[in-house]
């Protein structure tokens, strides 16, 4: 695998179960989420700084302006002495309404998961704000689950964290296990699960309580066709009940099948926001252009119209800076 391939870890292929499918139209309600000029910064203490700290030294942040070469190589990471700052989300703003299912796409490391975690309240903003009506369900479940406990115990804890009663959790137990497709693994500690199994169980628990805002991070990539079909039905159920769904996925066909709107994030910035087909076409074109010439595959028919402002013309390209090359 080349370095370019490793960076471009997506699935552009349309899978049989996604053919001819798009997210159905549902009436869109009032705003339920406002993200306003959001910035999220990770701070990582370098190994040298940790050693110094262990020796009792005061580790201070040195505000050294890095050289041009260093900034070029570190793309988005700002080194300040022993502490490295990763500016993962850089000034993102958007509003989401009840009934929307929003896909978040972007290349590896572009900030998708960080954005989702910030919306869920798991990452504090460095600046800007997130206003949510209702509690995003990833928050309750992720905060509650414990790797050393069995799936069974975690279903109970996660269900309680989402506001279900113990009786309601018991009633929904079989459905959650079946939905996650983890079989008898449910009786083993979650630390023995593959990342896909854990992601599916989190999704199954978080969607068990008919949440107002359902957040799904990559869980759909880890299941088979039957799991995807169950997931799609569950997403529709949430939307029909005027809930909102956020979906992070590397599979553009999954996003096309399940989302009404797509946010394209690149290097922590929002580069495009609009109806699924318009953003997906531009994104697919960008990904194709990043691949070596022999591996680009055919272009989708009619994509140029969307890219040049055709189609419904509703997609919003955001800002000139930080856009992928060629857009
Ligand atoms: N816990 C962390 N500490 C420090 N940096 C982090 C941490 N998590 C993510 N990052 C950095 O933040 C940036 C955005 O990462 P994030 O995981 O949000 O991207 P992503 O688009 O979800 O990536 P992927 O598609 O690979 O899952 C990357 O540069 C990543 O290295």
TrEMBL record:
Q: Which InterPro entries match?
A: AAA+_ATPase, ABC_transporter-like_ATP-bd, ABC_transporter-like_CS, ABC_transpr_TagH-like, Bact_Polysacc_Export_ATP-bd, P-loop_NTPase
Question: Region (Disordered): which ranges?
Answer: 286-327
The cellular component terms of Gene Ontology attached to this UniProt record, alphabetical and capped at eight, are: membrane
Sequence ranges of Gly residues compositional bias? 299-313
GO molecular function, a single term: ATP binding
Origin, by domain of life?
A: Bacteria
Q: Which UniProt keywords apply?
A: ATP-binding, Nucleotide-binding, Transport
Give residue ranges for domain ABC transporter: 70-292
Q: Which Pfam families match?
A: ABC_tran (PF00005)
Q: Which Gene3D superfamilies match?
A: P-loop containing nucleotide triphosphate hydrolases (3.40.50.300)
Tell me the protein family, please: Belongs to the ABC transporter superfamily.
Name under which the protein is recorded: Teichoic acid ABC transporter ATP-binding protein
State the species of origin.
Promicromonospora soli
């Amino acid at each position: 695998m080349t370095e370019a391939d490793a960076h471009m870890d997506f699935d552009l292929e349309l899978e049989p179960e996604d053919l001819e499918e798009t997210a159905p139209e549902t009436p869109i309600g009032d705003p339920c989420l406002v993200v306003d000029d959001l910035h999220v910064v990770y701070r990582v203490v370098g190994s040298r700084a940790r050693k110094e700290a262990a020796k009792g030294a005061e580790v201070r942040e040195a505000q050294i302006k890095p050289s041009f070469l260093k900034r070029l190589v570190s793309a988005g990471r700002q080194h300040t002495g022993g502490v490295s700052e990763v500016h993962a989300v850089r000034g993102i703003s958007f509003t989401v309404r009840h009934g929307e299912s929003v896909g978040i796409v972007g290349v590896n490391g572009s900030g998708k998961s960080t954005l989702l975690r910030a919306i869920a309240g798991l990452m504090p903003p460095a600046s800007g704000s997130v206003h949510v009506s209702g509690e995003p369900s990833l928050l309750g479940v992720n905060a509650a689950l414990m790797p050393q406990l069995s799936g069974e115990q975690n279903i109970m804890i996660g269900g309680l964290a989402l506001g279900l009663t113990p009786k309601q959790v018991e009633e929904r137990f079989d459905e959650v296990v079946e939905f996650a497709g983890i079989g008898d693994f449910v009786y083993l500690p979650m630390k023995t699960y593959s990342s896909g199994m854990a992601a599916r169980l989190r999704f199954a628990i978080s969607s068990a309580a008919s949440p107002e805002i359902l957040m799904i991070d990559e869980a759909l990539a880890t299941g088979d066709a039957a799991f995807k079909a169950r997931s799609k039905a569950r997403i529709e159920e949430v939307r029909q009940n005027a809930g909102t769904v956020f979906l992070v996925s590397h599979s553009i066909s999954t996003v096309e099948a399940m989302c009404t709107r797509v946010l394209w994030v690149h290097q922590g910035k929002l580069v495009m926001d609009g109806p699924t087909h318009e953003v997906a076409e531009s994104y697919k074109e960008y990904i194709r252009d990043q691949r070596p010439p022999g591996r680009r595959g055919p272009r989708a028919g009619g994509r140029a119209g969307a890219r040049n402002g055709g189609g419904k013309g509703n997609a919003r390209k955001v800002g000139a800076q930080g856009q992928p090359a060629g857009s």
